[in-house]
Design goal:
Helix content is about 40%, strand content about 10%. The protein contains 10 helices and 7 strands. The two termini are about 15 Å apart. The structure holds thiamine diphosphate and magnesium ion. Magnesium ion binds near residues 181 and 182.
Length: about 280
C-alpha cells in the first residue's frame, strides 16, 4: 500500500468513527469503546479486500463477514451504510423500537449482516460452518471473522479453532480485537488472555500479531493470511478501546456508555479534524 492509499483509509476510519458516534449519540447510549477499537480492521476489509456488492447482499458467491463481538454492531452499521447497503439516515434508528439496526447484529434484519451475534463465543463457530459450506459447495468467497478478547475466554471459540484447523480451512481469516478490556475491566483482572500467537499456533492456525490501528501492518498481515491455502489464519490486532475519542479512549467505563448531545458535538468536531488531517 502506498502512502496516499494509507491516508485515504485513515480518512475513512475517522469518518466511520464520526458516523458511529453520531449514530450512538442519537440514541444517547451505546457500545462506544468496542466499536472504536475495530474501525481500522473493518475499514481495511470493507474498503480494500471484501468482495461484496451492496446492491446484492444475498449474492452467494461473495465474501462473508462474521462480527462475533455483536455488541460492536454500531461500527459495522456505519460501514454498511457508507458502502450503500442501506440509507445512512437509518443509522439514526439504532436500537429504537421497530429498527432494523438492533444493538447487536441480526442477519434477519440488517442488509449486509451475515450472522446474528451477541452471545460471546459463538461467532467463530458460525464462521467455521460458513467456510466449510463454501468449500463443500465450491463457492469462491472467503470468510472473515472478528472476535473480541471476551470471545477468546469462551470454550466454544476453541472448539471452533480445533475444527477449523482439522478441516484445513484456508478460506477462513479471523481477527482478534485485542483491546485487552472487557465489560468490567482489563483482561488481567477478568481472565488472563495472553500469548495469543502461541495459543492459536498450537491449535494449528497461522497466527500473527500486529498493531491494530496501523493500516500498513494490518494489510501486510492480511496479505500473508490470504496467501495461506491450507490453514485458517488469525490476526491478533493490538487495539485501544475507545480509540481516537478524547477523554474516552482507554477508559474502563467506555463499554456501554451514555453520550450527551454536548459531548457528541465535541467528539464529532475532533473526528472531523482527524478526517481533514488525512485529506
Ligand atoms: C456469552 C456472553 N456472556 C456475557 C456477555 C455480556 N457481554 C457483552 S460484551 C462483553 C465484554 C466483551 O469483551 P470483548 O470481547 O473483549 O469485547 P470489547 O468489550 O472489547 O468490545 C460481555 C461480557 C455476552 N454478550 N455473551
Ligand atoms: Mg476486549
Amino acid at each position: 500500500m502506498n502512502s496516499s492509499e494509507i491516508r485515504s483509509l485513515q480518512r475513512k476510519a475517522a469518518e466511520i468513527r464520526r458516523l458511529t458516534v453520531e449514530e450512538i449519540a442519537h440514541l444517547g447510549i451505546g457500545h462506544v469503546g468496542g466499536s472504536m477499537s475495530i474501525v481500522e480492521v473493518l475499514v481495511l476489509l470493507y474498503y480494500r479486500h471484501l468482495k461484496i456488492d451492496p446492491r446484492d447482499p444475498a449474492l452467494e458467491t461473495r465474501d462473508k463477514f462474521v462480527m462475533s463481538k455483536g455488541h460492536a454492531g454500531p461500527a459495522l452499521y456505519a460501514v454498511l451504510a457508507d458502502k450503500g447497503f442501506f440509507p445512512t439516515a437509518m443509522l439514526q434508528t439504532l436500537n429504537q423500537g421497530g429498527t432494523n439496526l438492533p444493538s447487536h447484529c441480526d442477519m434477519n434484519r440488517t442488509p449486509g449482516i451475515d450472522m446474528t451475534t451477541g452471545s460471546l463465543g459463538q461467532g467463530l463457530s458460525a464462521a467455521v460452518g460458513i467456510a466449510l459450506g463454501h468449500r463443500l459447495r465450491k463457492l469462491p468467497g472467503r470468510v472473515f471473522a472478528l472476535i473480541g478478547d471476551g470471545d477468546t475466554n469462551e470454550g466454544q471459540t476453541w472448539e471452533a479453532a480445533m475444527s477449523a484447523s482439522m478441516f484445513g480451512l484456508g478460506n477462513l481469516v479471523a481477527f482478534t480485537d485485542y483491546n485487552k478490556m472487557q465489560i468490567d475491566g482489563p483482561i488481567d483482572v477478568i481472565m488472563k488472555t495472553d500469548q495469543l500467537v502461541d495459543r492459536w499456533t498450537s491449535f494449528g492456525w497461522f497466527a500473527q500479531q500486529v498493531p491494530g490501528h496501523d493500516f500498513a501492518a494490518l494489510d501486510e498481515a492480511l496479505q500473508k493470511a490470504l496467501a495461506e491455502e491450507k490453514r485458517p489464519s488469525m490476526i491478533i490486532a493490538d487495539t485501544i478501546k475507545g480509540k481516537d475519542l478524547p477523554g474516552i479512549e482507554g477508559d474502563y467505563n467506555n463499554h456501554n456508555m451514555p453520550i450527551s448531545a454536548e459531548q457528541a458535538e465535541q467528539l464529532v468536531a475532533s473526528l472531523r479534524e482527524l478526517e481533514e488531517a488525512s485529506a
